[in-house]
Specification:
Elements: E1 5-13, H1 18-32, E2 36-39, E3 43-45, E4 55-64, H2 68-81, E5 98-104, E6 109-110, E7 115-116, H3 125-134, H4 147-152, E8 161-162, H5 171-175, E9 180-185, H6 191-202, E10 205-207, H7 216-222, H8 224-248, E11 257-259, H9 265-273, H10 276-290, E12 298-303, H11 306-316, H12 326-341, E13 348-352, H13 362-380
Parallel strand pairs: 9-11, 9-12, 10-11, 12-13
Antiparallel strand pairs: 1-4, 1-5, 2-4, 3-4, 3-8, 6-7
């Protein structure tokens, strides 16, 4: 294996969600080339050499074991996967992502496929300015000037504007920005399993619903009308106590908190199970408590078809759940959907698990994480 070499790259985007494109590109490069070691600020600037939308640009440094031409092949693959089609024309055009190699260690290369250092970097403020954030004293081996001097002497008239956008070195650094992630879903969908995986993966504080200790739950599934109100009230009291205790206890050794439920589920289930007069009384108590509890940064709802949920319930074998009806599950699903639609100020995310198995297939678990990461990034942009 080759020794690690520091590679400096310039990233740009002027189509679609430019910030999201930059960050997704960075995650892909970090996985395929090697760990990101430095990140510049994100700058906005006009398109250079053609009429097009303004670009977002940044520079990054990575450590890689790959050879220079292998690095080039990798970034071309990432560009193509993100919708960039490099043409043979010399004319510039808008693009979802543009990745250029600026430096590969101290290498000087001139081949048909690759020229290093990048031949036009000294002419471009949108390269030099972000590069000066992370490598101000790095010398250009051919021009014998460091980045700051190249920027000072640049004749590029285009001004750059530093944005407030922030890029993250990897997915872990992004998830560290969370305070509270709620994983919700219907009975048997796997919200507890996913919450445990995320907590272990990112060193997050895990908050699990304490439903197994509720003495009314088995009785409710046998006689719903009789035990609905005491069940829902006991759930509400327990959830409120747990939320107020767990969300207020800051853990210095955990990055954020992930829970397999959100306390609003109390109202969703109560609307389904309670009689009208019972529900009106319940809602008054709930509204008082709900004002006091912590709300999630991202609310994730895991969706599966009713048939799959029934199969999941059958497999996990809890006796008191085996008589749950399809109609009951469908009512729960509609209740969650109504809540999500009726809460526009909340960052909500529906993940369809019909073709995903995040327990058995690591690649499906990665897809779930990527979907959550995209929603988090969308909230930043």
């Amino acid at each position: 294996m080759r020794e690690k070499t520091a590679v400096y790259l310039s990233l740009g985007s002027n189509l679609g969600n430019r910030y999201l494109h930059l960050q997704k590109c960075l995650f892909a490069l970090g996985k395929r080339l090697g760990p990101v070691t430095q990140l510049s600020h994100v700058y906005e600037n006009p398109a250079v050499g053609f009429d097009g939308n303004d670009f977002l640009n940044a520079c990054v440094a990575l450590d890689t074991h790959l050879a220079p031409h292998a690095v080039l092949s990798t970034i071309l693959e990432v560009e193509q996967e993100m919708g960039r089609q490099r043409g043979t024309s010399e004319n510039y055009e808008s693009r979802t992502i543009d990745i250029d190699i600026l430096y590969y260690g101290e290498e000087i290369i001139s081949s048909q496929q690759l020229t290093l250092p990048h031949p036009k970097m000294a002419e471009r403020n949108f390269v030099l300015k972000p590069l000066s954030d992370i490598a101000p004293q790095r010398y250009h081996p051919l021009l014998n000037k460091d980045t700051r001097n190249l920027l000072q002497q640049s004749k590029d008239p285009n001004a750059l504007k530093k944005t407030k956008l922030r890029l993250f070195k990897d997915q872990k650094a992004l998830f560290d920005q969370l305070h509270f992630l709620a994983i919700e879903g219907n009975i048997g969908v796997g919200k507890t399993t996913l919450s445990k995986k995320i907590a272990a993966h990112f060193n997050a504080k895990l908050v699990l619903e304490r439903f197994a200790d509720n003495p009314f739950l088995p009785k409710f599934y046998e006689e719903q009308e009789r035990y609905a109100f005491p069940l829902e009230m006991s759930f509400l009291a327990d959830r409120y106590q747990q939320f107020t205790e767990d969300t207020r206890q800051f853990d210095l050794f955990k990055k954020f908190m992930v829970s397999d439920y959100d306390i609003f589920k109390s109202l969703i289930f109560a609307r389904i199970t309670l009689q009208k007069d019972e529900f009106e009384l319940y809602r008054k108590v709930f509204n008082f408590m709900y004002k006091e509890v912590k709300k999630p940064d991202i609310y994730v709802y895991l969706y599966q078809s009713t048939d799959q949920l029934l199969e999941n319930i059958r497999k996990r074998g809890r006796d008191y759940e085996q008589n749950i009806s399809a109609a009951y599950l469908e009512k729960i699903n509609r209740g969650y959907m109504d809540f999500i639609k009726g809460t526009p100020g909340q960052t909500s995310l529906i993940i369809d698990l019909e073709n995903l198995d995040f327990v058995q297939h690591p690649e499906d678990y990665e897809k779930v994480l990527e979907t959550i990461a995209d929603a988090l990034l969308e909230s930043f942009s």
